[in-house]
Amino acid sequence: MAASAAATIATPLQCGLLSSQGFSGSTRILQLKKNEKRSVRKACRGLITAKIDLSPPPYSLDALEPHMSRETFEYHWGKHHRAYVDNLNKQIVGTELDLKPLEEIIVATYNKGDLLPPFNNAAQVWNHDFFWGSMKPGGGGEPSGELLRLIKRDFGSFEVFVNEFKAAAATQFGSGWAWLVYKANRLDVGNAVNPRPTDEDKKLAIVKSPNAVNPLVWDYSPLLTVDVWEHAYYLDFQNRRPDYVSTFMEKLVSWDAVSARLEAAMARAAEREKEEEMKKTESEDNLTNSEAVEMYLDPDSEDSEAT
Amino acid sequence: MALRTLITRKALRPVPIGFRGLQTFSLPDLAYGYGDLEPAISGEIMQIHHQKHHQAYITNYNKSLEQLDAAISKGDASAVVKLQAAIKFNGGGHVNHSIFWKNLAPISEGGGEPPKSTLAMAIDNNFGSLEALIQKMNAEGAALQGSGWVWLGLDKEFKRLVIATTANQDPLVTVGPNLVPLLGIDVWEHAYYLQYKNVRPDYLKNIWKVINWKYASEVFEKENP
């Protein structure tokens, strides 16, 4: 269904554009994030386009009843999320955004705050995927392990964290999202390198964002989100957003998912740190050892210079 | 000033707080019953919209005004500045919804009847026809991302009609200080979701059946005597 839609939308002009970039045949040259669902198809005269797919939530539409109704899912996932996916695909097919991973599309179209048209759809596709994954049947309760340790360290206690998160969700004026994120920006200054990085620089934080904006654009690692657009709660709670957010915290949050995301975020931060260290030492080495090259000398080889 | 009259109509006697006699606000009554705009807008929506959403803006606006009053008295400059967002949001919500209730009328009271006389002429001059105006407002209302309003306004300075959108609860005056709101359509999801769900364009199509052009004409004629 959607594949043919993508095929008919790409015009000959757009076909020309993409083929000039040198894509050949059916070579798949995408670097997709794990679990990112894309369909790579041919659209018009061999043009390759990677349609974003609408993934269902990781549970059935009635699995979160009575806390979040099946009816809500039918509209929220079946209409709103689906529309963001369909509209995004229409916007990116045949452009250079096509074939890029979704997170790259988001950052590129955020355009440092001067939003380009595909941003709203791209970010909302990602946000809703992330939101479904933040919940599970029989959710709620309390986190454990490393996540709980960091929550206590950075907020004082789990209760304080919950209250702050609820307050952020309640005070996001208009449409938007509230987030728990992991920040690992070392020093929060664009060009500076923290001369003495410690684990304390990597912290949990609560942020809120308007409309489609998400913390990826600030280079934070999102761990948990709650959708506070009215469509997320109006059928079940009408105007009672605080009740919705309380129910979300008490009955729906998947702390397993949040912990897994934290683990991944910390691993990414550690990897980045290592890369930065390597780059630093490489550039130091280049200054002092520009001539030295290590060779493995085999005394028996004719090529050896050893005598 | 026209705007202040709007806000205080039907308000209770001002309740003095402190020496300044801070005036607080209360929920204005509708000129019709909650169910009187059906089937364009359901009674359920009208009741929740009026009694819950508008009331909450008023309650929180009053709270912020009290906090502002205290901050001003103490000379706490940063507290004053910090309160601006809550004042704009909640005060704007009160201002906008007070206009909105007057923008609507039951069909039996003239809701949906096209404008006549000077406003009708101005619409034709500025947009070509009433249909063209409606189409443009619906397009802008449907395209608005997130929450906000779509307005038909009068630019007092240039004596022309404009269509504008505002985000969240920003009143029309934030787009231009010379703009007078004639008609505002709430496109926050709470304005239509229980009835129209995600199909905002259907809500926009149907609301014109209960738009109170008489009120819009009154406001227009007051600015153009």
Automatic annotation (TrEMBL), chain A:
Molecular-function annotations in GO: metal ion binding; superoxide dismutase activity
Record's protein name: superoxide dismutase
Annotated Manganese/iron superoxide dismutase C-terminal domain residues: 143-261
Keyword Protein transport among UniProt keywords: no
Cofactor: Fe cation
Keywords: Chloroplast, Iron, Metal-binding, Oxidoreductase, Plastid
Species of origin: Erythranthe guttata (Yellow monkey flower)
Annotated compartments: Plastid, Chloroplast
Automatic annotation (TrEMBL), chain B:
Pfam families: Sod_Fe_C (PF02777), Sod_Fe_N (PF00081)
Subcellular location: Mitochondrion matrix
GO molecular function, one term: superoxide dismutase activity
Catalytic activity: 2 superoxide + 2 H(+) = H2O2 + O2
Keyword Oxidoreductase: yes
Domain Manganese/iron superoxide dismutase N-terminal: 24-105
Protein name in the entry: Superoxide dismutase
